[in-house]
Amino acid sequence: MPKTPQQLRVEILDLVREYHAAAFPAKAFDGRVPVAGRVFDHDDMVHLVDSSLDFWLTTGRYACQFEREFASFWGVRSALLVNSGSSANLVALSCLTSPKLGGDQLLPGDEVITVACGFPTTVNPIIQNRLIPVFLDVTLPTYNVDVEQLEAALSPRTRAIMIAHTLGNPYDLSRVAAFAQKHDLWLIEDCCDAAGSMYQGKQVGTFGDLATCSFYPAHHITMGEGGAVLTDRPNLKTLAESFRDWGRDCWCDPGKDNTCGKRFCWKLGQLPEGYDHKYTYSHIGYNLKVTDMQAAVGVAQLKKLPAFIEARRRNFRYLKNGLADLQEHFILPEATPGSDPSWFGFPIAVRPGSTWTRNDIVQALERERIQTRLLFAGNLLRQPAYAGIEHRVVGDLANTDFIMNNVFWIGVYPGLDSTRLDYVIDVFHRLPLAA
Q1: What is the per-residue pLDDT across 71-126, written as a single tens digit (0 to 9) for each?
Q2: Distances (CA, A) of 162 to 96, 129, 131, 390
Q3: Residue 189 and residue 219 in one domain
Q4: For the chain, how long is the longest CA-to-CA vector?
Q5: Is 359 in the same domain as 281?
Q6: Is the distance from CB of 167 to CB of 143 less than 8 angstroms?
Q7: How many C-alpha atoms does 357 have within 13 Å on its Cβ side?
Q8: Could you tell me if 429 and 326 are in contact, meaning their C-beta atoms sit under 8 angstroms apart?
Q9: Which of 116, 180, 426, 432 could cross-link to 185 by cystine, CB 3.0-4.6 Å?
Q10: Interior CA angle at 76 toward 70 and 77, to 5°?
Q11: Residues known to be catalytic
């Protein structure tokens, strides 16, 4: 008697578990210390293959499950999956340009407060939506926005704030959120590096109107590619969904029809009455959905997120303690007061006047197979892509330039254990810093 599809599925998934054990055994330390990487097990592979057997190649049941469970983890009403953290930033800011927001709509020429030290795709949506970025400096050793500059940044055109929590370290959300509320500004928290970070006992991403997260392999959980937009506001969720889904006015899930119950009863724009709501567009949007196979991996990864967060915190403490006696040469990172970061990386500044430059240090570490990264773009305004953009700057961005020239970071991701971290600490102590 032929086996049923369900029986075959069970057999296939059992084989996947066996395959994982054979193909991805635990590896002994080989002298290489990555800065980040995917951490996965047989359960992630089983979820991926299970989804593929459905052959539902766009957003589907796993995406719905992930959105529901991720929103619950974060403590918000809605999590909207997109295909990257960069897309999440684009969708989050773009939805605030919707005419459906009336007088709260962001218009071309409005200003958005941000920082010059960071990752490009926190700032790019501001420029792409014909808004004006206003760049503030950051403080050391938290690497976050200098809140003392907020009032100086304000102008009659200021309408929003969009800033990332640097390397998982929350910025001073009490000051930033209070400033936004006082001046009736939108607040978008870029949490792409900060899943699980806490500020005054609350999750980052719950202080503003919208938040974003990334699921790139280097981040706290991975889908390979992927991201999410988070919000407690149903109207913003609907708008974000529209910009993610081609700009359409309809909110039906893929493969579903007539969720609103009046698919052929709408009269919008200059379209004929009764024009199919599935093909009615209220925004200039995109197609930024994930596949269900990506979401399936995310569902499995989400179970591991609390352990991943604790591992990142533990590894950060391990490095901080192990490098504490080198503070004559390096500025070590500090958490923002009142915060408990879920660290993305361990930033290190080479002190001014040191015998060795930042480049000397990172090249020496790389020769020892310890991966390093710079603090993203350094000063965005020094990057060729941003020459000539319309913008404003508050102050002289002195700390941002210092970071561009003197700061790098090393890994704390869950794939690192004490053996690898001890090696990192030993190599640092063997550097001829006083030569």
Answers
A1: 999 999 999 999 999 999 999 999 999 999 999 999 999 999 999 999 999 999 99
A2: 12, 13, 12, 17
A3: yes
A4: 80
A5: no
A6: yes
A7: 6
A8: yes
A9: 180
A10: 95
A11: 219
